[in-house]
Write a structure and sequence with these properties.
Number of strands: 13
CATH superfamily of the largest domain: Response regulator
CATH architecture of the largest domain: 3-Layer(aba) Sandwich
Helix content: 40-55%
Distance between the termini: 63 Å
Strand content: 5-15%
Number of domains: 3
Strand order of the largest sheet: 2-1-3-4-5
Radius of gyration: 23 Å
Structural class: alpha/beta
Largest sheet: 5 strands, parallel
CATH topology of the largest domain: Rossmann fold
Number of helices: 17
Oligomer: single chain
CATH class of the largest domain: Alpha Beta
Length: about 375
């Protein structure tokens, strides 16, 4: 069974980016005008990931056939019904393909969802890395998650513990395992999933991770989010985390908090929120106090504390993507938009930036609107 079935008029261009074993995971098919890709579709029905180039012809304005990757995907989706796998749309001219600005990668899921696929990307090595991680994630989920359903039904359910432990990799024996499962449950994972094929089951979980979990603060944390919970600057946490890679025994408690489940590196490394919170509690309860325990954990890694800040928050940019900039909460307002999942906390944006951007000002949550004094024309 192929991991990835790839349709392109010139698949060799993107395949040239792949090396060694990477190539073996992708089965490319060259799409020719006026030909029915029956062999490709036969392989696609067994694949874990579909990959389409948007522009299937060098002369995409051909009068004989205006087919593109998205329209071909829609035909295949209609043919297989709810059993379709995770789907990715790529192009060397991506903004021309989707006809809108892409914005930062943390918001690409919004553009992808609007076109009915899970992810979009250019024909770069970074897209290839994410594509292969998607395929690996689908394989893991397809094997580990075993939903049950009634005979004749297209959907089934699973136990939350199965998702948390067998799929996401919550350490069963960790003291914070129960808290982690509670955090996962609050992130509203899809509890009813298609059971027509393991790849279809995995697609729903993959879609949830891509659109509801990884881009936002959730049960998983970025380096910067973890740093604030340990009361240190983001750069200091990154240095500490990098050092833990080569000194896992000394910093085993931190290493145990690292998320290693599906899509663990998709948008950068992630940490279990429950694990980081437990680590912060252990440091505070240690003999000698938090500061001494933190110094012991850090060893020879310089650590800058978040001293002098009453309520530190991570500042988000105009796209509502968190940065590594730390500010006082009183200097910011909370903003959300229609793409934020209902269970996700709003982004923090500096008041000064909001005053200069009417689009941002319109998205400030009701409770914070009185903090913004918009200039009148």
């Amino acid at each position: 069974m192929p991991d990835i079935v790839y349709i392109d008029d010139k698949p060799e261009d993107f395949m040239a980016v792949a090396e060694g074993e990477q190539k073996s995971k992708i089965q490319p098919f060259s799409y020719e005008e006026n030909e029915n890709p029956e062999e490709a579709f036969a392989a696609a029905k067994r694949a874990h990931v579909w990959l389409f180039d948007f522009f299937l012809f060098a002369n995409r304005r051909s009068e004989a056939n205006d087919e593109n990757g998205l329209s071909l995907f829609q035909k295949w989706r209609a043919a297989v019904g709810g059993g379709r796998p995770t789907t990715v749309l790529i192009s060397s001219a991506l903004e021309s393909a989707v006809k809108e600005p892409l914005g930062p990668v943390e918001r690409h899921h919004v553009v992808a969802q609007a076109r009915g696929v899970e992810w979009i990307g250019d024909k770069s090595g970074e897209t290839l890395r994410r594509l292969l991680e998607l395929a690996d994630g689908v394989n893991l989920i397809a094997e580990a998650l075993q939903p049950t359903g009634e005979d004749g039904k297209k959907f089934g359910t699973y136990e939350l513990e199965q998702l948390c432990v067998d799929v996401l990799g919550v350490p069963r024996e960790a003291e914070w395992a129960h808290s982690a499962q509670r955090h996962v449950d609050r992130a509203r994972p899809p509890r009813e999933v298609p059971i027509e094929s393991p790849a279809a089951t995995a697609r729903v979980i993959i879609g949830w991770l891509i659109s509801h979990v990884l881009p936002y603060p959730s049960f998983l944390l970025t380096d910067a989010q973890a740093a604030l919970r340990l009361q240190i600057m983001p750069d200091s946490f990154r240095s500490l985390a990098d050092a833990a890679k080569v000194d896992e025994q000394h910093r085993a408690t931190l290493t145990a908090c690292r998320y290693t489940g599906p899509l663990a590196e998709f948008l950068g490394r992630r940490w279990w929120r429950a694990g980081i919170d437990d680590l912060a509690w252990q440091l505070s309860e240690a003999e000698g106090g938090f500061s001494a325990a933190l110094e012991t954990l850090a060893g020879d890694v310089p650590v800058e504390r978040l001293d002098g800040l009453d309520e530190p928050v991570l500042v988000s940019d105009a796209d509502l993507v968190e940065t590594s900039e730390v500010a006082e909460a009183r200097e910011c307002v909370r903003i959300t938009d229609e793409d934020f999942p209902a269970n996700v906390e709003p982004a923090w944006v500096r008041i000064a930036d909001v005053r200069e951007n009417r689009d941002l000002a319109a998205k400030v949550i009701f409770e914070d609107r009185d903090l913004v004094e918009m200039a009148t024309s």
